[in-house]
Amino acid sequence: MTIKDIAKEAGYSVGTVSRALNNQSGVSEKAKERIMEVVEKYHFQLNTNAKHLKQQIRSGIAVLIKGAQNLLFAYIVEQLQGLIKQRGFECTVYYLKEDENEVEHAVQICQRRNPQGILFLGSDLNHFREDFSKIRIPCVLVTNYAGGLDYPLLSSVSSDDRSAARFAVEHLILAGHTRIGILGGKRHTSYPADRRLEGCALAFAKHEILFEPERQLVESYFSIEDGYRAMERLLLQMNDLTAVFAMSDVMAIGAIRALADHGIRVPEDVSVMGFDGLDLVDYLLPRLTTIRQHREKIASRSLEILVDSICNQAPAVHELEPVHLIPGETVRRYSPEGR
Fold first, then answer.
1. How far apart are CA 163 and CA 199, in angstroms?
2. Is residue 51's pLDDT more than 60?
3. How far apart are CA 159 and CA 29, in angstroms?
């Protein structure tokens, strides 16, 4: 006697019988009574071992992404999906809003899907400090550094955000700019944004240039639309700026559009520096000057580390990947006469 036989004799679907036997909602009292009559008649017993076995089967690798408009993440996820498939794992991708708690979602995914490991793109380290101890499988933060958290199951692969941002701002300073505005991520929830702001401050300090974040900085999400709005706010705060460093290419694209809408030419009036090195910046007019993150290396190393932890119980590691400058057409040497 199987659950299908019970369903056939009781006159209900297999799903209804299953819900009745597992005491789930959505089953009428009449249906429940009829199903239990058949169960008692044939002394049927639910095979809980099969259910338990199904719950124990690991279901591949989960990828959690915060920020659906972040094009860098889109590139990296595309790389990861191919690499995960090559390794013979199943890949499931989850998109979250930027203000959601990704660790809480990961705990729920572990309970429902039982993955072998998790890759996080876009993460708030505060959530990991508070809740990561609830997770019992290997995880890797992708594009974020978790070396200070000291969890044995949590690794990370990212660019050296502080050094990269310092390099970006110094590039503008060496081109003669001293009145530089910053379009940044939300530093209280984004560790990369916070590290990049530290790098900006180091560049100003090295060249003995006063840095006033309350005037020179506007925080925003990493999207074109938010970059546009942030640039408009920055123009109100700092109407004498000659250059802008945007902490992502998509923000830089939004900023350039905002400048154009205000009759400000790039780079003739204001220079713009991006960060990420997305493929699309080569097709902008003018071509964006930016700092390129090695997304292919970040994706491949993140997966290598996760698989090594899954298969060999390898210890957590934290790696910083180098960046390099892509010279474009949005930064020019500043001269007061040409302004």
1. 6
2. no
3. 59
